Amino acid sequence: MFGRPAFGLAEVTWRWSVGLAAWLLLAFFLAEYLDSLTVSRTDLFLLKTRHPALILRAMLHVFQGSGARLVEGFVVLAVCLTILWIVIAALGRAATVKALVGHFRDMGASRREAKATPQWRMRALLGLNFFRAAAFLAAIVGCLAPLLALRTFREHVSSGNGVLVLIVVVVLVGWAWSTVNWFLSLAALLVVSRGQDTFGAMAAAVDLCRDRPGAVFAVGTWFGLAHLGGFTIATFFALFSLGLLRALHPAVGLVGVLLVTLVYFGLADFLYIGRLAAYLAILEFPAPPATTSLQPSGPVGGLHSAIIQPDGAIDRDELILSDRPAPA
């Protein structure tokens, strides 16, 4: 992260490119949708009155009948952005992980442990990203399902119990989605570094967590704590910037919040590429095999092995332990 910042800058570049494209498409979509609305003279007159009730009535009349068009346009936009993310994320992840693998392989070559880079296919990364998008869609459906259920059975469930059920379901769904997303992101490393296919990379990720649980848990814990610390500091500075809205010009506070948000996102991307590098280090430099016993070397070791037999018996021919007198 600090010695080779180019890796973090590459991660920031492709992630922020996708994010900028998404925000621009969303802005164009909203502009086209608002341009398609019809505002009559009566609605315009009610909007100019600045009375809350009259403004609300005018807005309801303007947006009446446009809900289906809004939903259709949003679905098309979501599908296009998902396809864009699947392709660009596969290309970006392939570039960053390939560079990281080359970096660690060069380190291994300097230690006379060079490994040949296996052949891998882009469709494996595309498959993993497709499953990540499907998991995100399933998480959204899982969070919306309690709302529909509570709306259907609102006469039989109190508001307090409904909110409690909604919070529990959202927390469980969010935890399940984050776990699946983490496994799929870890599997992307195995596609590039080991040449696995989509399902083979998933199985290899599970095997890695089973074989090296301590190392994997340590990486996730320390980088998670660092991410939490960065989020806490960014939240503090964002609230401080919002507090300046009354003392200074509102634009200054908004610019401060925007800068803090961008710095936090950049830090999060650097931490993410650092976490990937740590997992790759676990893959490229496995732990040394554990030794079951230590055998002394030298004259003492030879004497020990001569005295103690493999079956645990004592060698009576040794003069040290023999009860017969030594010859003159």
- Low-confidence runs: 297-312
Give a quick account of the main beta sheet: strands, pairing sense, barrel closure: none
**N-to-C order of helices and strands:** HHHHHHHHHH
Which strand-content bin applies to the residues? under 5%
- SSE class: mainly alpha
**Percentage of residues in helical conformation:** over 70%
- Terminal-residue CA separation: 75 Å
Radius of gyration over C-alpha positions, nearest whole angstrom: 31 Å
Molecular structure report:
There is one protein chain. With 328 residues, the chain is mainly alpha-helical. Among the domains are: 1-117, no CATH class; 212-285. The protein has helices spanning 5-35, 41-48, 52-63, 67-110, 122-152, 159-194, 198-211, 213-247, 250-284, 299-307.
Give a short summary of the structure.
With 328 residues, this protein is mostly helical. The chain has helices at 5-35, 41-48, 52-63, 67-110, 122-152, 159-194, 198-211, 213-247, 250-284, 299-307. Among the domains are: 1-117, no CATH class; 212-285.
Keywords:
single chain; 328 residues; 10 helices; 78% helix; 0% strand
Draw up the topology in text.
Layout (H helix, E strand, L loop, with lengths): L4 H31 L5 H8 L3 H12 L3 H44 L11 H31 L6 H36 L3 H14 L1 H35 L2 H35 L14 H9 L21
